[in-house]
Structures are given as structure tokens and as C-alpha cells.
Amino acid sequence: MKITVQLYAMLRDLVGSETVTLDLPEGATGSDLWDQLCQQYPSLAPYRSISRIARNHQFVTETEPLAPEDEIALIPPVSGG
Amino acid sequence: MKITVQLYAMLRDLVGSETVTLDLPEGATGSDLWDQLCQQYPSLAPYRSISRIARNHQFVTETEPLAPEDEIALIPPVSGG
Amino acid sequence: MIRTPQYWIEITRNALVLENYLPFIQDPGFGAFVIFGGTVRNFAEGKPVQALFYECYEPMAEKELERIAQECFAQWEVGRIVIVHRIGLLQLTEPSVYIIVASAHRADAFAAARFIIESIKQRVPIWKKEIFADNSSQWKHEIDLGKQ
Amino acid sequence: MIRTPQYWIEITRNALVLENYLPFIQDPGFGAFVIFGGTVRNFAEGKPVQALFYECYEPMAEKELERIAQECFAQWEVGRIVIVHRIGLLQLTEPSVYIIVASAHRADAFAAARFIIESIKQRVPIWKKEIFADNSSQWKHEIDLGKQ
Questions:
Q1: Which residue in B36, C62, C96, D129 could disulfide with D53, CB within 3.0 to 4.6 Å?
Q2: Which helix (H) or strand (E) holds C101?
């Protein structure tokens, strides 16, 4: 299945694009998404442990299975306020 | 010595005057002031234990000796804000 | 009114306008400010209130507010403090007090603003008379002698 | 923008004007309000700052702010909440965020305002890039890969 991931802030800058579309097996989780993303963009690896995954505008754990219709974004450490 | 006391809020209302001038012995303290005041105006007595004395715009204890040139005020429980 | 480059203390009979005090706290060294506003509420002691009357021992009140501001500068890293209190007759929703604290970091501004309002309620000689909807009135903390 | 009778959540590219939000919190049932303002400070990471750039994952940020507001209504007796955050390029001293909480009693307004700003800094998808005086720039929390 195709999953499009939105990237923000330093993650977007490192990849050079606001979105990345990945081809993942059915039932893939956030963890699988990270695995493949870091393989494709090794510069993201240091951010994996400090970033969170948002599915449909809510934080989810890495074990959550993803679906193609989900809106997925990676949320590096926030700094609003 | 003559000591003039300023009264505020409910204390002033109970006495019916913004100031009261008392004749106290030399070296009289805040405690002596209260004694005489409550004798003259018994309706003030319930406020004695919950009010403070201010001398020259600062709170002082009842044991502090007073002088005629001091600006003395009785401060019942405050309620600003 | 007592004004220094660090603090602005004022007791006034005029309506309080928050915007008047904001330029005083603006400084590129501060990243945070906290404002506390007290306003006239329609209920007190379980009864509907129509207005409040504030009275003040003015010279002492301003000095006590100044001492409170100075205690804040000694305890926290704060940059600017405004404390303004209105006295006289205030209608529902009108502001009675504004406390503004600007600081480099937010924790200091929160702590100092809270300290200032708690201190005002403990030791600044200002008194509030509640004027109830039935036109009766009573000083706050007034002892009901009939009940003694 | 998400607006209900109880809360007003807004992320905007326009300059924030505090006075615009004050009528929303005015109510004779509230006796206190607390405002937190965040402004652009001239120093960060030990270096002089000339401006900040804020970016945002907007639909999620507004929803997360709404969840924070709802958590406040569940935890404290608060009457009205405003949370507005500016994004884009901000100059020194300009406000980036205003949080306003009105309540019957001051303790609730202080607690909720503090909770909101701490929550924003933990879990609302907004990111700040610091633009230093030497024209270099860096996302806050950016990992310096050269140092790894």
C-alpha cells in the first residue's frame, strides 16, 4: 500500500520535500514506516527516537497499523509558544 | 501625648469618624492605644484581634511604642484585588 | 503613582485601560508576560452583587505595593512589573486591578504575578464593600455583630 | 479558527492584537482572568536573535489546541479560554502567542493558563526557527549532526 507522509521543520529540510510517498506492505505500522524512511533518508535517523507519528491529527504509537487513507505526519520536537 | 488614629472601612463606619484623637501616656504602645480605643468605642472590640496597626505606612506590632509625630492607622482585614 | 524604569504602581479612581500599560513592559530582553485581571463579579457571599465600592489608605497602599514589587525583583528574574488598582464605585465586569509581569522566562512571570495578587489580598490597605442587588451593602470581612 | 461559546482557538499569520480577544472573555460571572503572552526575545542558545520563523501543521495544531482547552474545562472551573498563535516571520518584541483564561476564582485561571502554555510546548505541532543576528538560522531542537 502507498502511504504518504507529511514532513515538517528540520525533517522536511533534511529530505528536501514536504511529503514522501512510501510503498509499505498491508498492515504496516508506524515502526515499519520509520524503518523504510530511515533507509531511504539516513539523515532522519537521529530524529526517530525524539519524533512522534500523527495519524489523522492525533498522536499514535509506533505499533499502530496504518492505512492508505490515513493522513500521516511525522512530528519532530515541537517548539511553539 | 496626643495620638491621632486614622480609621478605615468598617472601623470608620462603627466610630462614625475618619480619625480619633486619644490622650495616651508617654511611651504608650499600640496595645495601650487599642485598650483606650475599645473602652471609648466598644463596637471596635471584635475587630481588635483581626486588625493591624500601621505606623508611618508600615505594619508594626502592638508592643511598639508610639510617638505623637507618627502617622497611625488601624488596618482591618483588607480585601483589595 | 510610583514609577521607576522597573515598576509602575498606581492607585486611581479612573477606569483601567490595559493597553495603556503594555508599552511599559515591551522589551526585546523579555520573552514572556503574565497579566492578572480582577473584575467585578455578580455574586458574593451567596448573594447577587450589583456593584463594588473600593476604599483605600492611599499613601500606605502605594508604598506596600512598591514593597511587594521590590520583593518580586529580589525573588525572581523579572524585568518589569505593573500594579494598578482602581478605587471608588465599580460596576459589574469592570476591572479593579491589573498586574503585569514581564520576564525572560515564563516561570518567573507566573510566580511573581501570583505572589503579587496573593500579597495584595493579605496586606495592602484596600477595602471592598459589596453592594448587593437588594441595595444592602457590607464591607467584606465585616463581622455581623447580630450573630455574635 | 475554532470558536464555540466557551473557547476561541486560532492560528494566524496576522499580527496579534490583544484587545480583539478581551470582549470574548467578559462576563459578570467571572471575577478573574489570566493572560499569558509569549514575545520574541533577542537571545537564544546563547546567541543574539534577530527574528523567529514559526511553522505549523495547521489542522492538527488547531485540533490539539482544542483538546487542550477541553482538558482545562474538565480539570478546572474555567469560564472562557482563548488560545491564539501566530505563525510566519516575527520580529523582536512581537507577540507569538496569547493565552487568556477567565474564571470565577483566580486559582483556576492561573492553573489553566500555565497548563495551556506547558502543553503547547510539549504537544502542539508548531516549530520555531531561530534567525540569529549573524543571519545563520536553526530550528529549535535541531540536532547538530556535525557534533554527533
A1: D129
A2: strand C95-103
| pLDDT per residue as tens digits for the range D96-116 | 999 999 999 999 999 999 999
Q: B53 and B30 in contact (C-beta within 8 Å)?
A: yes
Q: 0.80 cut: is pTM over it? A: yes
Q: Which helix (H) or strand (E) covers residue C8, if one does?
A: strand C7-12
With CB atoms and an 8 Å threshold, state whether D93 touches C26. Answer: yes
Chains that touch B (3 or more CB pairs under 8 A): C
Phi, psi for D56 (deg, rounded to 5): -150, 145
* Contacts D59 to A, Cβ<8 Å: 57
| D122 in C contact zone (CB under 8 Å) | no
C55: nearest CB among B8, B43, B75: B8
Contact D33, D66 (CB under 8 A): no
For residue D122, give Cα distances in angstroms to A73, D10, D119.
Answer: 17, 18, 5
Nearest to C120 among B6, B10, B80 (CB): B80
What separation in angstroms does the CA of D21 have from each of D18, D25, D33, D76, D81?
6, 7, 12, 21, 10
Residues of D in contact with C104 (CB under 8 A): 41, 43
What is the ipTM metric for this complex?
Answer: 0.95
The pairing of beta strand D137-139 with beta strand B52-55? unpaired
